[in-house]
């Protein structure tokens, strides 16, 4: 164990709390206050005090991060790849301790979720990012030989601050999750801001990640950890002149405040916030497989207690006999179903706030709608419904995300009303259209798709939006308010890398001074480069050199 | 001539002013006021009244633009390419009238600048954008065949508003310039906001551009024109929920206000504002070619009366004998040189404001520094100097862009001071390092380059930053405040397209419903696609289909 308890006198009493990782050392935080994680299954505090840092800690971390960033500008991609791989291996070796800590802090099931699904996915993400870093093709080396102008994507030259979300303590952890992997693969240092719901998990990950740095030859400040900060210090942090960029996954008000601060300072800001991931069930699909669709949607809505960013929060269909039959089955699946443990008190309260707003806007609860139990954080699996007409009268509050096992069914009078719903949707991460196996729904699909297409990053057919395959082609992004920019993705290697990259042009720079990826010789013999409009793995050969 | 004079009664009098182009028709503006262009060579108003639109015009244009955007989502890339090519051809045919109008409105020389350089460059940009649109490789179709997940870049689904700059009435005109070409090539409609210094040039371009729409099969609202709007209506415009994105090139305060409004609304914002484009002259270079460098820098500083976004506004060198000799030659080139005509009154006043700020921060005028003549807008070609030490004491005001033939020489005591200057620089579009032909400056170059690299989009060797070759590899971008995001470029096809594109994912969408670029068959047989990690022009062939 690298962690040590720091000693500090505050208010005249001695307090012990975990140190932060800044500038290559575990050191005592300049703490404004301390906090503890809470076991959401019981509502009780877990042992272990964690500091809420003063801005002095953040300032130190950003400055050290800038130093590390300058060193990493010229780091060999192999070092970055080795690091990510080693980290994945060691996380694999520590699975038991990590999963147990996370289970206590998040209430998520040890099996299969944490031990068999999420940690393996985290390791796979790290390996894919490592592969892409080693391959180097991601940097899109572009060379025009006649003009001798060359360009590539490169690190930002400043640290990336990652604010981790509450819901994926491994796959999306600020320390080792998808944003972390992308930022490091590009060659940026990371300052991880732990989610205060799972500081212990993040601490264990940071110990592993810090331990891997030296062996890979990365600078000691390439990975830093701060547990918590005041909201106003977060705003100062993301606007810091030495920062590279920030990524935040979480609630909309916090995301927008951070984005505004970074935007004002001209820093790239990546937020991922609410998404309803609407599912449209076309009439033909419901005629032939209403029960199957209801089963899939129920499972998708309640998976992880509904705390997935791709949970279907809106289910839209036509109120014909098949639609009513589907609705009846879906209702029966929700009825009497066992609620999961929510990640924390704010999640529980957020659901209540969202339900109140939806209720005021005319949605009615069909199943659920109440807290469960006196201890811990649980909420009934909740299904609501509303007519399409009522939805169209007041679409904004009905699109407030209820982050939990809550879904709103919109019963439309006809196809035009369904198209109207699609037209008033805000931006979403994903949306799915279920249609008849043969051509029965094709005409409606062809009318609906163009309206929906511009509202979502990822479009699916005949399946629920939860479940993300981490591939090069995956899109986990979308128009505002799902994210802050529709041209990026936060999953998938290397597509997720571009959030943390700057475009570097070299205009007739002497050849020996070019970065390896832009020199005439292909540095790996395998990386793809766009030379004179052709993607190729070849070297550039010059006639005058061939003669020499 | 398509333009007609509208009739409106305002304040009881009849006024005639040019109509705006909204929703496929030249129509009378809801004008809040009217304005005229000014001949900057004389300071006199030019004939022709133009409207400053009320927000009602903007609202109509954005709504019509959204309608056109939905139509254009599925436009064949060939239509977009045909359109851009036809536009280039017709602009070529109208060169004479266009160049004469622009010369009157901007004071820029007819020859070679407008007729022989800028209009041909505009046409070349349109052709290159057309080629890239037709080729389709720019959309980076990415396909993972095993998972059956596919993605590509696509239009935004809303109009792009382009606010054109004052300095390139053709190459960067909101109507037909580089932003316009990129937005249309992707498949987005454009709402051009003319620069009020050259409304007549923009009107003529709009007449040509509107006339080309029908033949290419694009919707009538694919191109719209508004001449002017109030600043607060600009803020409402860029935050409009139906907007795709906006691009603005111009002054920093206006750029930042627009960006903040768009950022808050979650709309992609592309600003290009001030840049000093610092040139570092290393000691060995000055020993061998001080005179040559001085000639090049003088020409670069005064080209287009210094009103280039890549003008070298900062010249940094060591105050050794060779440095002083260079400085003396540069000074002699500025002395007695003929000032050009500035684009308008605000440019003249901007230079005076910037010079005052630089003077307060310790810079001294060596040559120039005053207005010229009683009529029209001219300012002496101006050279300032300051010591490195003084620069480092107060770097912010000394980095205020003086948009004109103004350049500040920074005389450094030694190499470390030069590195210190690089370290405090803000973001820039370009920077150049002059070094000795052989290895004499190599050690200093290797220390300077990493510090400078993260501050600029485009790095040059041994040449001035003005003069941009429009290629696939060109980078015209850079960190804030040069632009709002270091990962984009506003010149170069197709690299400039990505500003106006959304990432669209298709997760197991039925094959016949995929856009042509993502279907198994390569739609052109030539476009590059990334299939299972390999860039290829081949079709996807499936074993089961080969057997069938």
Structure keywords:
homodimer, 548 residues, alpha/beta, Aldehyde Dehydrogenase, Chain A, domain 1, Aldehyde Dehydrogenase, Chain A, domain 2, 3 domains, seven-stranded mixed sheet, five-stranded mixed sheet, globular
Task: Walk me through what this model shows.
Two copies of one chain form a homodimer. The first copy, chain A, folds into three domains: 55-135 and 146-272, Aldehyde Dehydrogenase, Chain A, domain 1; 279-461, 3-Layer(aba) Sandwich (Aldehyde Dehydrogenase, Chain A, domain 2), CATH 3.40.309.10; 511-547, no CATH class. Helix content of chain A is 37%, strand content 20%. Chain A is built from 15 helices and 25 strands. In chain A, helix 5 (178-186) links the parallel strand 11 and strand 12. The N and C termini of chain A lie far apart (60 Å). In chain A, 59% of the residues are buried.
In brief:
The structure is a homodimer of 548-residue chains. The first copy, chain A, has 3 domains: 55-135 and 146-272, Aldehyde Dehydrogenase, Chain A, domain 1; 279-461, Aldehyde Dehydrogenase, Chain A, domain 2 (3-Layer(aba) Sandwich), CATH 3.40.309; 511-547, no CATH class. Chain A contains 15 helices and 25 strands.
Question: Strands, helices and their partners?
Answer:
The structure is a homodimer of 548-residue chains.
Chain A: E1 6-10, E2 13-17, E3 20-22, E4 25-27, E5 31-35, E6 38-39, E7 44-45, E8 50-53, H1 55-72, H2 77-93, H3 95-106, H4 110-135, E9 142-144, E10 149-155, E11 160-163, H5 178-186, E12 190-193, H6 199-216, E13 223-226, H7 231-238, E14 245-249, H8 252-264, E15 269-272, E16 279-281, H9 283-302, E17 314-318, H10 321-334, H11 345-360, E18 364-367, E19 382-387, H12 388-393, E20 406-412, H13 415-424, E21 428-434, H14 442-453, E22 456-461, E23 501-507, E24 529-531, E25 534-536, H15 543-547
Parallel strand pairs in A: 9-24, 11-12, 11-14, 12-13, 14-15, 16-17, 16-21, 17-20, 19-20, 21-22
Antiparallel strand pairs in A: 1-2, 3-4, 5-8, 6-7, 9-10, 10-23, 18-19, 24-25
